[in-house]
Amino acid sequence: MPRSIDQDLKRFNEIVRGRIRKDLRRYINHGEMLGRKGRETVSIPVPNIDIPHFRHGKKGSGGTGQGEGEVGQPIGKGQDEGDGQGQAGNEPGAHIREVEVTLDELAEMLGQELELPRIEPKGKDAIKSQKDKFTTISRVGPDSLRHFKRTYKEALKRQIASGQYDPKRPVIIPAGEDERFRSWKTVAEPQANAAIVYMMDVSGSMTDDQKEIVRTEAFWIDTWLTSQYDGVQRRYVVHDAVAHEVDEDTFYRVRESGGTRISSAYTKTRQILARDFPPDEWNIYCFQFSDGDNWGEDNRDCLKFLAEEILPHCNLFCYGQVESPYGSGDFIRELRKIEDEFENLVLSEIESKEAIYDSIRTFLGKGR
Asked: Biggest alpha carbon distance in the chain?
């Protein structure tokens, strides 16, 4: 029988998570929890909700109805004994509570709110992981793994076979030889892994605001894909006229200048996939972010490279064009020329932080 306080706490947690889900669009658009991300949990600020609880006084301070005083006398300081200065305000204060939410819970909320379909991984039998499963019975083992039903059956069979069993007085007492224990064997279990390659234009036309949009969207993409796969590997590519593979911190902080050749990022991505992620063993996701500015003669090479070298090997290739006051925005129009030929090519225009929510739905809504 669950205790009343446990039921109250469960209801409280449901209220908190309902509030988070209700405001999820705001969290997605503005990335309020990104700086509060831990290894497996995220701390999210929500309006404060307190659980009622008892507060004990100091030992020896007396109890209810004890000590001097008249009926109706206020406890503690009265209204005319305040220490504050100035006129009292009449507006309520803002109460914020930091709530720990696991990334799995956050992914579930994201999937429900954006109505994201579950992903059916490809090549799920290619990678095997070792896992212990309790599938057999042994005559030896620790008491914690004793199989009571099997032990009882063995004792019953032994007493019937020896003539000791009395149907009128069916007392079954297991002996040491009757004991049976759960045992395990190590099996190779199919494991579906995903590789994510992030590409970002870091030329002078990409501002810090645009990179903040990329960082926020990548966080939610990671959260969803990690909930769908047993293992997720990430690679990061930055480029201006030349592409480089970098670590995550550099990906979000670096800023360069110069011209833009998007084909350099595609060349580097192909090298990464060939080196680390054979397409028949990995579910591959590519997310490219740019302001759409590209050297004009490079566009034709980009389309050819995508169609022949990258798109045939990806579950999904997503291009997000972030609006910039400096970029031309032409590249997405080039990609639309081949959009109908490839179902795994998804395009999104991200005009501001408020557009992140719909961009994520556009990218992940096909369930690939």
From this structure: 96
Q: For tokens 């595609």, name the residue.
A: 266
pLDDT interval class at 127 (50, 70, 90): very low
Helix (H) or strand (E) holding 293: none
- Predicted confidence at residue 223, as pLDDT, reads 87
Last residue of a domain, one of 61, 81, 115: 115
Domain contains 19: yes
Tens digits of residue pLDDT in 199-228: 999 887 788 888 889 888 988 888 888 888
Tokens at 291, concatenated: 């302001």
Range of the domain at 171: 127-188
Burial of 283 (0-12, 13-18, 19+ CB in 10 A): buried
- CB neighbour list of residue 272: distance below 8 Å, 6 or more residues apart: 197, 235, 237, 245
Structure-model confidence comparison of residues 129 and 280, the more confident one: 280
Could you identify the residue written with the tokens 């490839």? 342
**Does residue 167 lie in a domain region?**
yes
* 172, 230: one domain: no
pTM: 0.64
Q: Same structural domain for residues 355 and 217?
A: yes
Output the CA–CA distances (angstroms, integers) from residue 4 to 1, 135, 289, in the order listed.
Answer: 9, 38, 51
Query: In angstroms, how far is CA 182 from the centroid of its own chain?
Result: 35
Task: Identify the domain boundary among 188, 217, 241.
Answer: 188
Give yes or no for a contact between 237 and 185, defined as CB atoms under 8 angstroms apart: no
- Cα→Cα distances 52→5, 8, 9, 55, Å: 10, 10, 10, 10
- DSSP 8-state secondary structure symbol assigned to residue 37: B
Residue-by-residue DSSP string for 319-360: EEEE--SS----HHHHHTTTGGG-TTEEEEEE-SGGGHHHHH
Residues 274, 239 share a domain: yes
Q: pLDDT digit string (tens) for 63-112?
A: 555 566 666 666 555 555 555 555 655 555 544 556 677 778 888 888 88
Number of domains into which the chain is organized: 3
